[in-house]
Queue: 4 jobs
Job 1
Amino acid sequence: MSDDITETSQTVAAGQLRAFIERIERLEEEKKTIADDIGEVYAEAKGTGFDVPAIRQIVALRRKNPAERQEAETILDLYMAALGMV
């Protein structure tokens, strides 16, 4: 009886593990597709004359809340001043 329970538990655990792995694989494939799509948008922007590094920087800044963005800008200004760049 206990062997049946152990075997059933192992079968259930194996099924759950397989389901997790398959979900991760599916999401990784979706992530790759999305990354490819984003790359195409950047290429399109570059093709129309926009500066891709500037666009990437703006996208990164927009992800931050205003306080985080202000802190990053303050640190950048401080470092640039220390190096005599401003």
Job 2
Amino acid sequence: MKRKNNNTKYINFRKEYDFFEYQSYEINVEDRKLNIKYNFNLSNKHDFNPRISFVIPDSFDISEIYKGKLNNLVFNIGMIELISYWKAACPKRIIIRPHKLNLDQVNWWKNLYFNGLGEFFYLNSIIVNQDDFVDIESFGSSTECDNFNLDFKKVIVPVGGGKDSIVSLEVLKNAGVDVYPMMLNPNPARIRTINNADLKVDNNFVVNRRIDKQLLVLNDKGFLNGHTPFSALLGFTNVLLACLNGVGNIALSNENSANESTVPGTNINHQYSKSFEFENNFNYYIVKYINNKLKYFSFLRLLNEIQIAYLFSKFPWHFESFRSCNVGSKEDKWCGSCPKCLFTYLILSPFLDKKTLIKIFDKELLSDNDLIKTLHELSGVSEIKPFECVGTITEVRASIKNLLLHTEFKTENNILTSVKGLIGDNEISINELVAAFNDKHNVPERFLQILKNAIYD
């Protein structure tokens, strides 16, 4: 992605729009659906009303909702939802009306907003620092932790339709774990993932989120736009879902590779809210301010992308149905031209033959010269990695090294020749990466053994 020089626009917007207000949240129950509407306001000039809805299980006493049982959970989803609308003009003041935040909470949210918007600030060339980019003022009553009956034999697994959540679902299911797949705004790839995993229909959790279209109108008018920490929103959404349904574990599918910065030498990370740093910060907040028993962890954190690709190769019934391409997602296809497509091809190549890969992507990506620039970015030949959820330079180079050793993938027009002389012979091997485990994770012992057994099987 090209950087834009929007720092002057940022400064001018902050002069014109001096505050953003989280006015309230509204809870409505209808036909055992929990419908939530958030009321945001940008400097008395623009109103936003995003919505999110959950199915209420029969086991949950609806009267508890009217007593405020879910208020803290609902409020905190609004705290992360608001950042998508705040970033349109980036006002200096954020006013929180529904509940009072203490200083620790204010600093926690400022840290998330700042780091989660790192890519947004970078690509817009906005000069900012964490101390003074925003002031958070809050009013109302304080929130408190609440007790929910949680079953720690049950696990929620968010499903995105890609290989990572497929690996989590299949490995946990095969180990006899009571798995509850979660879909936020279901699409065909997510639905296929659950169907192909042959999981109980009754165990599926569906959450529907709707952004306010006024935000899209402002984007078209030239207001500021860019990446937000979506996985943080997913985290708070799953916490409410877990408490509502009495599920004690939330198992994400974020891997070790999510910790690598997108821009070398900085903390700018496209995947910040998938990183181990955020996972630890999130757990701190959940334990202290929401529920001190709920387990939130990334099941795949101890793995690298090569290990995940190796496990994925054991589930061929998902090969033609999974999708990780953001560009082609609306048409339910691989675009075959983006960093995500090329990266996925590269890391699967040690475990799948060329014919299978071409069938998945509907083309031979290594023969597409338009992907040379992308290959250079993924492999670290270029200075900056793509702003996508892709793995590390080490993983990409190991995959390239492995491909160069196999005649099956060699053609006259192969784009790998463009990096052949730029990647050393001393790159780590695929076998070494398959055997390498990351020791920085929060995976409970029970699940740790399940994952290691799957690798060694």
Job 3
Amino acid sequence: MYLRDPGNPRGVLQGHAEEVEYGRGGRRDKRNGDGGGVGWAADHFCPSLHGYGCLTWNMMLDFPQASWNVISSLCQPVVPSEGDNLAPVTLAGVRRGDLHPDAVHPGFPVSLIGDTGGLFIMKLFLLTVAALLLLVVGESTAERILSRRTKRELASPLHVGGIRDPFGSYCERRGGCCPGRDDLCTVPYLDTICYCDLFCNRTVSDCCPDFWGHCLGVEPPFIGTCERNGNKFLSGQTYKENCNLCTCGTTGRWECEQNACLMEPDIINAVNRGNYGWQAANYSQLYGMTLDEGIRFRLGTQRPSRTIMNMNEIQMNMDAQTDSLPLYFNSAEKWPGKIHEPLDQGNCAASWAFSTAAVASDRISIQSMGHMTPQLSPQNLISCDTRNQGGCAGGRIDGAWWYLRRRGVVTDDCYPYRPPQQTPAEVGRCMMQSRSVGRGKRQATQRCPNTDNYHNNIYQSTPPYRLSSNEKEIMKEIMDNGPVQAIMEVHEDFFVYKNGIYKHTDVSFTKPPQYRKHGTHSIRITGWGEERNFDGTSKKYWIAANSWGKNWGENGYFRIARGDNECEIETFVIGVWGRITMEDMHNHHHHHRRRHN
């Protein structure tokens, strides 16, 4: 087919197409229509809406007098600049044979690129025929249609960087604006892009700074700009300050959320300036979270029920041994290679599973005299212990011990931890089942989720026992049998602990109530010690392992005041024995040797 425009003074070229695709949902239809065409302009156009259907095309036109870039757009008229000298245009080489005059006219908004300086046959490349058919009755109808398209799927909003040149030339430098919605109508802007299409006006955040003045000829919808770190922001633009989102208001002032942040600089500075006996730090892995999110996602142990709290405490015969307890004791030094390193629960409220698995791992290693040193799997508990448990939304340690006793778990290497992405936290399908093989013992019925590991032995415990809240009895239990599990209350300042002997401070007492919150956590106590003060007094402390990774605290551990039930850490303390027989140790030792030979 041959299309020709012998020199229309307004540069209008009539083109025709049959197949129409409208919207982004992929529905195709064939319709007839008339009107429309190509509006030529050297730099920019003013959009308006009229009652006809249209197509959107992407193409490049080369012809003797000039080279034109065709912009993909909704078909809306383009008013050429005064004084433009538009050359006669002939379109040839159309590849589609089904084009005919009674189909819908396509619109070709274009912008002048420059003089080509040569004579050659103009080529028409249809890179995309992405058609958008708008059947509109008038301007108000079109406005209603466009108003339903309120979100750009692939938009890259102007965020955080600020407006360094709020009144610079972006759409003007581009050489043209685009009517309707065109996700290719962009200009590089800082480390992102901004838009020069009419749709950007639906969300102020992704328009180029000069869109309103250059493309629409109107004043911008914002009154002023906001400044931050030497950068200017337009009204409606945002940046995030720690855990709070700040928005540039129409008055030129920042409007910020007032959340209490997990990493609160005022609290960190107050602790470090005060004489509290410990130091605080700003942790990058916790920065940007609110205090509410930290308590919700970084703890995860539910307080025991009244029935569990009334468990009988075991009776210890302390007699003269009480005086023989050393000033300092560390399980890792008494049982080298048998005390496991702290893990990181991430944003998964499952300290109930991490502390249980850690204590059981240490106790089995000690009890087996090192023949069995499993790092038991918290994920096995999180995914499979679902009876009245919440996985990454919190759980009870008594439920965890029930599961470890009655069902058992495999190692962390066999069933590795899968931290939840961003928002916690799917429990995940249980991928490890077991069956009874008699005498209370269990055997795995599935292979390891980690297919590189074939060692799917099930490890179990005996019923846990509760210790007295007397610090001497807790110390003796740790020295004789290994680390214990404890429940504690975590306050807002504990998250920023770096080193020293922790005690809850009053640094947030002058702040609003949302800065003073606490939640229940469970940890593993591995030892104790004393620190002498300059005045001759001493500070007693527990050595405890957290589950926030080795980059937190003292290599994943913390020290906390001992003997006065700081943060209720001595209220509910648990010990346990592994379910181990000589046959288990023999089989494990034989299997271990076979794997390494």
Job 4
Amino acid sequence: MRLSPFFEELKSAYEAELDDLMTDSAGHDVLAKRLRLKRKQLPELLPMIACNPEMVAVAFHDGMDFSVPNSAVMRDLLAQEPEDLPPWEVLRETVHLQPWAAELAEIVLKDPDGERFLVVTACLEYLHGRASASIEPSPGQPRDDFDEEDPDADVDLEEAGADWLAEQGFDRKDRYSGDS
């Protein structure tokens, strides 16, 4: 699956935000308690949805279900930059909100950036769900590190590496030229 630079960066920030909420200084699991607090604070956090969406998106953690777990719609969205994202209505058939999350969504949609924020949040939750699902293999099924779903993953990784090297000032090498 190809992620846009926007979602690549936001994915790590979202995971870090969830990790920060997970435990207190004594190592106790306080995620549920902190998420409830975040949900209560949502109206006060709305000014952050444009600049730091990951910090507010965690309020919707585990509140979105996807009608098709490996949705092409969601994969397509993850390859887009924020200005290219569709309105929230486009995802109504793909993303189902838990009742408590639907109440939060009503609050968010009153904000001018609310629709885009909900689409971004759905993408982050989708990514998090895929990551969680891939961590635990099915019972009786051995875990391997090969991505059977996406045979082009090695090409994506190679392209990402080439992009990074080009950003560092190295010349891009033509992968079909035979130069190694």
